Amino acid sequence: MKFFPAQAAGGTAYLKSLAGPLPQARFCPTGGIGIDSAPEYLALPNVACVGGSWMLPADAVAARDWERIEGLARTAAGLSAGARSR
After folding, report:
1. Quick one: CA torsion of 76, 42, 34, 20, rounded to 10 degrees?
2. Which one, 4, 12, 42, 45, has least CB within 10 Å?
3. Closest by alpha carbon to 27, among 82, 12, 36, 35?
4. How confident is the model at residue 83 (pLDDT cuts 50, 70, 90)?
5. What is the C-alpha separation between 80 and 70, in angstroms, rounded?
6. Which residues, in sequence order, are bridge partners of residue 47?
7. What is the pLDDT of residues 14-59, one digit of tens each?
8. What distance in Å separates the CA atoms of residue 43 and residue 84, rounded to the nearest whole number?
9. How many angstroms from the chain centroid is the CA of residue 72?
């Protein structure tokens, strides 16, 4: 389930509180998540993925800087593997 706006609605603490009563639920938090906070979300067992506009900065899209966007997407994809292995 999409959880938006994640950070404003309680962030990782709220998602942790849902794990007990809803053990089969999986969330995709978005809203207020950045490259620095994404690993904390991804480390939660009830988080399947995160979304964040940090991967598509408006200036990079406007400039058609696909190389930069690709690099940001690769960094984001690497977060998932790293967070799950902890």
Report:
1. 160
2. 45
3. 12
4. low
5. 16
6. 27
7. 999 999 999 999 999 999 999 999 999 999 999 999 999 999 999 9
8. 6
9. 13
- In CATH, what number does 2-84 get? 3.20.20.70
Per-residue 3-state assignment (H helix, E strand, C coil) for 13-71: HHHHHHHCCCCCCCEEECCCCCCCCHHHHHCCCCECCCCCHHHCCHHHHHCCCHHHHHH
Question: 3 forms bridges with which residues in the sheet?
Answer: 29
| pTM confidence score | 0.84
Q: Which two tokens stand for residue 13?
A: 């603490």
Peptide bond preceding 21 in cis form (omega within 30 of 0): no
The kind and range of the H/E element at 3 are strand 2-3
Q: Which two tokens stand for residue 56?
A: 């598509």
